[in-house]
Amino acid sequence: MRSVLLGGIALMLAACGGAPAITASQPASGPFGASSVGGFVDLAGNPTNLSTDLGSPVVLSFLCPSDGDSGAEVPLLIRLAGAYQGDGVRFVVAGEGASAQSLAQWASDNQLPFPVWQDPDGVELTDRGFSGVPDTQFIDRTGAVVASEAGFLSRGQLLEGIARID
Question: Is residue 161 over pLDDT 70?
Fold first, then answer.
């Protein structure tokens, strides 16, 4: 019910001249698109990937602590992560252009309730077809990337993407 309602709201916003609609992606082959085999590392420096999230919808956001648009998107992601926690939607932030120490401090300062990973050398960002931050992918329960969006996403755009994977 929530998905239908939120999807309708997002479509109404797009149709009324609000935020542009989320676009379908053209992911690389395999579940979760891109490499997903160790391109990410956790803040302790251990390789990690999205394979443990198979069966859960995932919102993967590439953000940079020093980027203004990334900073503006963080409160939206925090609120939506709380709202969708009971529905099993997972949120993951991939930090770009920052050390593990600065990402850990940024995550603590912002009280991020979801995993924050590094993307050393921007491998995952590039493999997923992005060239900057913020960028977001919406990944369904099978690991398929159903939508990708470059740039800052409004609340309506985030809700539209989540409705497609929830």
Answer: yes
